[in-house]
Amino acid sequence: MASSGTSSFPGRWDVFLSFRGEDTRFNFTDHLYSALTSRGIHTFRDDEGLERGGEIQPSLLKAIEESKVSIVVFSKNYAHSQWCLDELYKIMESRREKGQIVVPVFYHVDPSDVRKQTGSFGKAFARYKKVTKERVLRWRAALTQAGGLSGWHVEHGYESQIIQVIVGRISKMLISRPKLLCISANLVGFDSRLEEMSSLLCMESNDVRMIGIHGIGGIGKTTLAIGIYNQIAHQFEGASFLPNAAEHRGSLIQRKLLADILGEKIARISNIDEGISLIKKTLCSRKVLIILDDVSALTQLEFLAGSRHWFGSGSRIIITSRNKHLLDVHEVDGLYEVQKLKSEEAFKLFSLYAFEADLLDDRFWELSGRALNYCDGLPLAVKVVGCYLRNKTELEWEDELLKLTTVGQLTVQYVLRLSYDRLQHTEKDLFLDIACFFRGKDSDSVGRILDSCNFSAIGMKVLKDCSFISILDNKIEMHGLMQQMGWEIIRRESPGQPGQRSRLWNPEDVHAVLTQKTGTKAIEGISFDVSASKEIQITSEALKKMTNLRLLRVYWDGLSSYDSNTVHLPEEFEFPSYELRYLHWDGWSLESLPSNFNGKKLVELSLKHSSLNHLWKGNKCLENLKVMDLSHSPYLVECPDVSGAPSLETLNLDGCTSLHEVHPSIPRLKNLKILNLGNCRMLYYFPRIIGLEKLEVLNLSGCSTLEKFPDIEANMESLLELYLEGTAIIELPSSVGYLRRLVLLNMKSCKNLKILPGRICDLKSLKTLILSGCSKLERIPEITEVMEHLEELLLDGTSIRELPCSILHLKGLVLLNLRKCKDLRSLPNRICGLKSLETLIVSGCSKLNRLPEDLGMLQCLRSLQADGTAITKPPITLVHLTNLRELSFSGCKGSTSNFWISSLTFRLLHRENSDDIGLQLPSLSGLRFMENLDLSDCNLMEGTIDNKLCHLELLEVLNLSRNYMVSIPADISRLSNLKVLLVRQCEKLQKIPKLPPSIKLFDACGCTALRSLPTPSRMISLQHRLVSTWLRPVEFMLWNCSGLYQDHVAMALETLHRELFPEIGYSIVIPGRGIPKWPWHENMGASVSATLPPHWLDNNFLGVALCAVFALEEGKTIQRPGEIRCNFECREGPYFSHSITWTHSGDRVVETDHVCMMYQPRSQFVKSKSTYASVFKHIKASFSLSGASHEVKKCAIRLIYAPNTSGNKRKFLPEIGNNMENFRSATRNGSVRQNN
């Protein structure tokens, strides 16, 4: 597969800096560059800065393409440089095609000047009359797009502080960006396959789509899936790639899926059903990308992606499998079969591996052709054979190819075996261990275990270089064909006697050897999945002869929780342990290990979910032990003595609920890095810490009876993370100040915590301090010293009444969370000195009635959440928060006792400042970067927000729900980026102005007085059409809008189709009982069929319209989320399916029947690469519903053509005047007209 310039993001550079040299080279940009590089951010800056002939140099183009983030410093003379403008165009192209992050910095320029090309930017363009029109249009489009992105406005304040904030934000962007997966650099034919896949993905569509990739083993399904992931993962709110899905336990892979998307560890999932419920609940509102690789059974899909409504709008689920039928049964929306390499592709790939060059050596041309004949176009075989023949002479090639010709019926396995035979003995053993035991496991852990077996790290590199293994996300991956070859090699050691083989992994073979006691000293490793085995009694005799046993793993990989009755051990059970390096036994059923247990060579010991009471008596010599995991052993009452394990690095006792105290040997371990005692509910004592010099993570969260944190008497400078969540600790000892490298301190929900020690200020490295839910904590100590690294301070749910003025010493604070601090009455004005603060949350602080007067000094503030407070008059300095993106005053309605009197007074006297009217907003004119504004439930009256919104040119989401306006300000039509307008339950609302062309969701559910339906403007500029989101469907949610039973609704529907571009889909839900009497193919029930006219897929075809009536069951209401879905099927040609999704939010009771009308444009209904759709003669549309007590009563479908065409191809709607009465009759009386 060919190396793709656009398939994945190379990321050689972290940041590319674009700037106008004469403006900022030696001041702002230089300081920004220095700050980025000192933070370790690999930054490209054009140090020559010479505009050679006004043409951008190839080296700069390459640097842009290879950067993850571009920072564009817009200055006064930026647009006067054609070089800069070409650079910007390339940057925006990289953003569009590769997902590069673009961050604008407006350095002493107005963002609107950049966006609209006015001011100095307008003057620059006046000079470009001799430049081609096409080039100027590209520049203008790039400036418009870049000027509309979130960035920083540098105008007032200290530049050094703004630079530190920018660098901090860039650092977080680089960390939070989906991690690119490792993919071979030698890819051939990759671009074309990605392009073919893109038509199936339909990224412009907002529905949830499942796509299947199928093909034979070794054909490149996984490689293609990785390439897709790297290309599009950045477009989603979360992404997960799950390799070898067929080989993972259900609940474990569910946890992995959620952890990948949420970016945090997930608590234990006890069973599959719990996991399904958690996936639905967590992901139903998130746009996610999930790739399930190598699926082999329908059950795997059912517990990971059982239904589209598990995931948020716009999600994509990609499934790879060798089994096409499995994908058909799961009803994927599109299928892609990966084809074998074409001849020229195979030659190129072979050359890259055999000769490490793009071109074949002429001397080997004929020989290479013979070699490729054996590979049959399979990429895996091509790579392995190429590696196998590398550096051999022509004569050696002849000999090796002769071997292949004498095999007869050649198989891929044989080709792979040739490469295996060339390995050294230890490399073969290493390969076989991985194939039988460690595929998909953590590479560090596996390396540690196999190191102890005298397999060097060099061997792992050899296997990687020869394509036997790969490392993906720090996991050792191996192609299924490679693993099967390894298994076959082991089977051939003793075809009929598994007890004579070196490795056992098949549950049936293991069961037979153990029950029949046929094991021998040949056995070096056993991996036994007891979930796939019958009940078994294992005796000492069964293992007695296995004296060379190095690896023993007994585990449960079933879909249900562990069954402790599957494996039975006698009380006197013993097994050979002298050679053991790895012992993993889930559900160990005895109270201790055997008395003769010898773990001198043991590296890893894992006895999770065991019945242990104690591990052993006395002290054991475990000089090589690095990992001990006894987690979730509920009967363990005695902590093991580990004084004989000086090399121990990880000790996990999480969930050992009967453990009372920690053995004194543990705090003395000098090499311990991770100590996990989480959820040891009975643990009441932790001894003094006099060692643990290398400890990095200490977890005591969930130790609900632990009242005292131990004194620290040693230098613990390695400790980075301390978790004390949910403990009974009353106070921290002052010795906590010794933890000078501590980065995270989590004391969430420490309900008894009353005070913090003053020495907490000594924690100079602390970045995150979590005190959420510490309900008895009434104050935080004076911050006597500067804590410049503290970025996040979470005090939500505490009893804090005020913040100390010394909070000013938190120079680097980025997030301050005071949510639901119900006793908090005010904020000190000195909080406005926190120049790095980006997020301030005071939501739910019900006694807080004002914000600091100097709030406008917080120049870096991006999010201010003050919903649910008593604030009614925000300070006028709010207007100076020029970098604010999110502002919420939801529920800030002021006093309600005299509301109706004062509101009446307001209406009569037209006063704008009545004291009890509700929220009284100051000017918002300076908030030019505002994206999300929530003013819901603020007792806003008619006219109170007039002229407040017109300057918010970047606003995307506006929530005015549950207010008392009669009309929405006309200014809203000028908000050219507004995508979501929410006016739910505005019961007095009658009129909505023209909506801006960018609108994607208008929700007016419960607006019973609404008399007209607004429509978006058709005025979409070239710049808007270049933005990928403009093609997303438009939704109109009008549940319970009973006032819309009028003629102008029909007019509005006509206007929708006339005003919107044919490429844009839309849906509308309104009260009604019948389908409008327009020319439909109509039917009772949930499906309708139609015969397609001859040549239906011509150039005039625009799309398809759908309509359905949803009837409530008698006495029922809709009170929870629901989904409407329409699937299309055609009899002729390959399977063809498509879906449209509409979701009812469930936050409002629906009491009547409703009509849903949807329009699906051609671009989404018929895929651009489709070669078979034109042969369809019949189409069937089936509606399905979920999540609500209602049914589909009637449905209809109609093809839409451009106007003024002949034959049966008619306009979407007939002339308006002839249908007013029809629509009114249909919606009120439920009349239906048959048109089949």
From TrEMBL:
Reactions catalysed according to its record: NAD(+) + H2O = ADP-D-ribose + nicotinamide + H(+)
Listed SMART domains: LRR_TYP, TIR
InterPro entries, per database record: Apaf_helical, C-JID, Disease_R_plants, Leu-rich_rpt_typical-subtyp, LRR_dom_sf, LRR_R13L4/SHOC2-like, NB-ARC, P-loop_NTPase
Superkingdom of the organism of origin: Eukaryota
Keyword annotations: Hydrolase, Leucine-rich repeat, NAD, Plant defense, Repeat
Listed SUPFAM superfamilies: L domain-like, P-loop containing nucleoside triphosphate hydrolases, Toll/Interleukin receptor TIR domain, Winged helix' DNA-binding domain
One Pfam family in the UniProt entry: WHD_ROQ1
Enzyme Commission code(s) on record: 3.2.2.6
PANTHER family: DISEASE RESISTANCE PROTEIN (TIR-NBS CLASS)-RELATED, LEUCINE-RICH REPEAT-CONTAINING PROTEIN
Protein known as: ADP-ribosyl cyclase/cyclic ADP-ribose hydrolase
